[in-house]
Every structure is written in C-alpha cells, then in structure tokens.
Amino acid sequence: MPELPEIEGLRRKLNKWIVGQRIKSIHIQRDSWLNIDREQLDNGVVGRQVLFVERRGKAIIFHLDDGRRLSIQVGGGAELTSLTDMEVEVDTKGAQFILNTEKGSFIIHGARSGSLHWLSARELDDDLKALGSDPLSRHLNSEAFRKRFARRRVTIKSALTNQAIVAGIGSRYAEEIAFVAGLHPSAKTEALTDDQWDTLYHATITVLEDAIDRIEAGEEVNLHVHGKVGEHCTSCQSIIEEVGSGVRAMTFCPKCQSL
Known about the structure:
7 helices, about 30% helix
C-alpha cells in the first residue's frame, strides 16, 4: 500500500507539471469509488484548471479553479504513475483511474480499494476530519508528538499506524521508524521514557523525509527490516525476525531492537 513517502513524492512530482493545466478527461473503472455519478463527475471536473496538489495523510487532493476539490485515496496493491508529455507512455489497459491533463496523466493500477470524491472545501474537511496530525507538520514537534499518544496503551507499531493519531504511516514505515529509533515495535507506548519518545519522533522525521527525497529523485527506498525476515541485519548481522501474523505481524532485529 502506498504510504506517506510514496504519496508525498508523487504529490511533489504532480505539482511540478500539473499546476496550471486543465483536466481533459477522467476515467474511473469502479463506480463504487465515487461519491457522485460519472456524468456529474465529468461535468464538474473536465475543463477545470488545477491550482495546486495537496496531501493529507494518504489522500491526494487536486484543488480546482472553481474552489472544489478532487480527493483520491487508494488501498493495498496500488501502483501510482505520473507521466508528462516528455516521458515514455505506459500501458493504460486495465487502469482503475486515469486523469488526463493538457501535458500529462496520473494513473492508478492494482488498488484493492479506493475512493474518488468531488467535494467542496467544507465537505473535504468533513470527509477527512478523522485524520490525526501529519507527522511532517511544522506544528508537530517532539512534545506535541508525545502528547498525541498520551494515555494510549498500545504497541509502538499500532500507535504509528493509527491514522487518527498521526496520518499517513503504514506497516512498512512504522517498522522502519522503530528500527531507526532502536525500539522494538511491540514495546508499549506507556512504558517509553521521555528520551525514547524524543528518539522515536526524530526517527519518524528522518525516515519519512529520507524516503520522500529518494522517491522524488527516482531512487529505490531500501528498508532495513520490513520484508527482510530471515536476512541479516545491515547493522549487526543478526537474523531479522517476525512476531505475530497478518496485520499484526511485526518485523525487527532482535539485537538492535531488544525489548
């Protein structure tokens, strides 16, 4: 599933070439994604100029010149592609969503779930009101970060992936943040010291900003623990382990992240 770094990296790329362009056409594969019917969507969106592209949590939001917003969110399996007229065209067959502008396209493949909502500014705020603070917000310092988790008795990974606390972090980056902080992902938040909270906050910023920079530059993001079960830790050469299963699975280095 795309997480904050992938969405933010894409948003920055879209902002470079889509701002000021008019929407020529829009394709949506599934009516279930829409909050209105297709005819309303076409009538409301086609011909509108994109003023800028925003991200809230994992949502990409196109601000249009009539004051309305086009908000897109996708679930697991999604591949997000943006193309300018200077790039090689990709196969759009089977695409779930295509937004074509005068100079390029934004394409989504493979998402297991998603939503495409055409909204007023107030409706958008209502639609996303359950989201917690953005972890990269200039208003979220170490103290405010710690207060977001106050009185919650959950694991570090559960806390970081709770979209009502901080928005945009999923399983992959939650595990990476815990690794960089040197904390076990199953450690309980109520047991963390002030110094550990400070370390966790700075690890969150470091991991997310580094991943965004790499994605924007077209580089691969190499995670240390997620998806590496049975491999050697790049820091201490211990074998990466996993506890739990399914959505509750947690991947970690038993030496670098000892409980």
